[in-house]
Amino acid sequence: MLFIEALNRASNQPNEKKIISRVKYRPITSNLDSVDLSSAAHQVKEIYLDSQSKEPLTASTSIFANLIEHVLSHIFETKFHVHSPEELDLDKKEWRLFLQVPPIHANKNNKTAGYMAPEIHRRPPAKQLIFHIPVKPSYGIPVEMTLLLSPHNGSPETLELFHSLPKENALPLLRTPYPPEFLDQQIKHHHILIDQDGEPDQLSALYAHVNQSRLAEENSMPKQMFGLRIWRAKNNTLTPIVLGDNKIGLLFVGHYRTLEGNINSAEESARQASNLYTKA
User: In sequence order, which ranges of 92-135 are alpha helices (DSSP H)?
Assistant: First the structure.
């Protein structure tokens, strides 16, 4: 993704240092854990993103997006580009994108009564992956940042990369245009979850708003990005960060607010607002 210019001087930025020198990474939770999860954690939720409901795209957000882009390119051995809505002029259009948020945890132990699946060769257990990324400022020595990548426990299928890649991964240099003082103030560790459970054309609602020359042919896109979804978890709630599509590619939506509701409830709310305005 294109780097966003740091408009404010580094000395004026809020000090949000979260330097983690010796991080204790929490292992993937097992179904045998005795935690009593609420029923909501096992239910699919419907959400949507609205073009009018977002935070400004900042230099800090841009660094986060570029870390993700850097890691995905390394994992799939293909140069990926994560677009921002601003790059595609989507910030100047009105649109809504509806998504289904999977449950935080899924019960994968359900088996059809009277049937036992034959034993097959078992893959190595899924594991969290840690990526160490040296981030180069415009001058001076690199700052190490880490990205912790977890399989989505609510996904019916864990991606192969969580079984095949080593737990610790050292990545090549990521160059940025930012001064070292600015990088020093950034969050050094991020945690994201990934699945590929979305529809291949999950961004189809945006096609009409994108310059048609930007839409790629499906056979020219790496298939690893079709239906790809990257989430961030906070307080048992998942918010989408990056969505992959077979025409637009990868789109960063981490600065958009997540709104609850489906397409019918959203349209009904809009009608009610319109009626109130007319009556007034």
Answer: none
